[in-house]
Design a protein that fits this description.
4-stranded antiparallel sheet
């Protein structure tokens, strides 16, 4: 799904954000990207989203080399991605429903498709009862779930979440990651940047640690380089588009060891299970008047619980009635 081949990125101010990065994320994986501020995590995501281009190496996304992709082709690659932002980025004057529907309108989805898809996605994140509310009427956790619904609504191949729990209550962070895990279980690849090591330790997923622009630990490749940032000799400025930064205390040094020794832990406070989505059909009547056009009439389906004998009797009775009406017409 995603592959970095000898990728390096140097900004105009001379800061080397990434240095000779090689890694691969398979389709359907859930990966935590961790590291201190300025380590290169944001640059890593920007290269995947085609917001930046590498100075050297190749970035492969779903079989496409996006390293030198023409600008006109970038929107088509981005349609395969759903982005979840730390600061939500909702449109204040739009309802929850319309914030999610907007993502479908910009890619040309039909009103009928939007009317079917949006309520279903809102049910997936547990917000079907908030469809007519505005962002200002929601809690931080609810607004982030709207952002997650918007990222999901076009059925992307991957979800990229950049610090999605950074602006919500810590107790709700587990709920958001639990929803992402449920989405991942349904086959969507998930990349999540986070500073919250409690989340990383609780959800047993693959962990990639970036320090000074290099991948220094990856739980998918235990035999590869796992040296701690403290032991490494810093030979370049800390990765940052704004300029060099001093490294912070690294909270992730022990993840590689913990990943293989952690047992089953008790649920963290505030963790909730993902909401079971409600079938499309249960929303039709509720949303017909408010959103979209009326449904076309559909012929009633045959009740398959009926026996063949009952069906045969109905057919014979119908034919007898038609024959009688035809005789009456001839008279």
């Amino acid at each position: 799904m995603i592959e970095f081949r000898n990728v390096s990125k140097v900004y105009n101010n001379g800061t080397e954000a990434l240095h000779n990065v090689n890694l691969k994320v398979e389709k359907g994986e859930f990966v935590f990207i961790v590291g201190s501020s300025g380590a290169g995590k944001t640059t890593f995501l920007k290269l995947i989203m085609c917001e930046e281009r590498p100075n050297s190496g190749q970035v492969i996304v779903d079989g496409i080399d996006v390293s030198r992709l023409r600008k006109g082709k970038i929107p088509y690659v981005r349609r395969k991605m759903g982005i979840v932002f730390q600061d939500f980025r909702l449109i204040d004057h739009m309802t929850v429903y319309d914030n999610v529907a907007f993502a479908m309108r910009v890619v040309g989805a039909s009103p009928r498709t939007i009317k079917k898809r949006v309520p279903y996605i809102l049910s997936l994140v547990g917000l079907q009862h908030k469809a007519k509310h505005y962002p200002s009427e929601l809690s931080g956790g609810e607004r982030q779930r709207v952002g997650l619904a918007r990222a999901l609504v076009n059925n992307p191949a991957m979800i990229i979440a950049d610090e999605p729990t950074g602006n919500i209550d810590p107790a709700l962070s587990f709920e958001i990651v639990d929803l992402l895990s449920e989405i991942n279980r349904r086959g969507t690849t998930v990349l999540m940047v986070t500073h919250e090591h409690s989340l990383v330790k609780h959800f047993h997923k693959r962990i990639i640690q970036i320090h000074s622009g290099e991948v220094v630990a990856d739980t998918a490749t235990i035999h590869e380089k796992t040296a701690s940032p403290q032991a490494a000799e810093p030979t370049r400025p800390m990765a940052s588009a704004e300029g060099p930064r001093e490294p912070e205390d690294d909270e992730y040094v022990q993840y590689e060891e913990d990943y293989h020794t952690m047992g089953v832990e008790e649920d963290e406070p505030g963790q909730t299970s993902a909401v079971t989505p409600v079938p499309y059909e249960e929303y039709d009547e509720e949303y017909d008047e408010e959103y979209g056009e009326e449904e076309e009439e559909v012929a009633p389906a045959i009740d398959l619980s009926q026996t063949a004998e009952l069906i045969a009797q109905e057919v014979l009775q119908k034919k007898a009635l038609e024959a009688s009406e035809e005789r009456e017409g001839r008279r």
